Amino acid sequence: MIKRRALSVGIVCYPTTGGSGVVAVEIAHALAERGHQVHVVSYRKPARLDMMRPGIHFHPVDVPDYPLFEYPPYSLALATRLAEVICEFKLDVLHVHYAIPHAISGYLARKLANREDDLPLITTLHGTDITIVGKNPSYLPVTRFSLDSSDKVTVVSRWLASQVPERLGCGCTMDVIYNFVDTEKYQPRSSCQMKGRITRQTPVLMHMSNFRPVKHVEDVVECFLQVRKEIECQLVMIGDGPERPPAEKRLRESPFRADVHFLGIQDNAQEILPCADLFLFPSNAESFGLAALEAMACGAAVIGANVGGLTEVVRNGVDGVLTEPGDVNAMSAACLELLRDREKLNRMKQAARQRAVATFTTSASIDHYEDLYWRAINDLLRDGPDTGNNGTIEICEDK
Ligand code: GMT
Questions:
Q1: 304 lines ligand 1 (CB under 6 A)
Q2: Is the whole-model pTM more than 0.85?
Q3: Which of 172, 224, 228, 314 could be 320's S-S partner, Cβ–Cβ 3.0 to 4.6 Å?
Q4: Phi first, then psi: what are they for 342, rounded to 5°?
């Protein structure tokens, strides 16, 4: 067993506001805080990545275009950039988030850098990389191959672990490492910072997502309209995406438009979420539900759908209410019951905060990731790689 030391870790992720990029960046920050050197690689700097922190480095991927390309091959440009980073910074671990295409680019990069024998590839699966994109016949064989070629695979919930063999027919072993939230940054506040736009005079219902179809934003809208007919309340919508325009139109045309606030993408969600009494999260699939966890940490009760990994985050009837997906009547009934019984609502809000603090701490998840890195490093040293390295191109001159 090697003595533990500071590691040089490569992290690959999408830079967009989706949960997998957020989780990757928070892992990078937490590892750097523990003294590791962390090299984040993506096509753009992820919004939340704090370049001022010691130990954090960012390496952009340049994707050259050419008239022949209808689709410039990002996976190849990423593999090349990764191979350079592996060599230049002598990476000890390569950790990719979201299987497609990051896992196969990582596999290629390691081969290009001639580091198959001592550089573990860790793949973290987040959700649609398995449930939608990965199982698509156009990607399935390569997704399965890249998981089989990873030294360790992690998933963000037990539910997602169950989906990997079911949807991919892949027999890899997985570590379940829950997503986490910084409960100091995300915490209840007595006054919420909404620059005078939102006041706590009436209860606040909130939703935050990338407004993709899977999020069922139309259920948020209908639920609010049903509740608002009965009780004075406001709706705050954070984020942007394809389902935002129809939602905005429907609400603009309703008699309650003055009670609705669309804020768009916000970098400071931790200042807005504490204004929420109820966080509406009716997705028809959710492998974890990081946005719901962030809301819970800020003291909001979750009204969501009884799906996937969300059931491992929210305890139905304790820190929220989970209804059948698409059952807007049940959602609005749950909201109305809580808004009419402030004591019950407050109990749930407190339970939500406690759940986040007790179960989803940064330190527990980062301990698990660090252990996993060391297990992977030691396994490779002890057993060697699964496949022999028969590459001939050596990008690393002085391995
Ligand atoms: O929406 C996605 O599927 C992509 C992904 C992302 O990049 O935002 O979201 C997934 O990963 C998050 C972080 O682990 C989870 O909190 C989300 O539940 C998960 N989304 C889905 O499963 C739909």
A1: no
A2: yes
A3: 314
A4: -60, -30
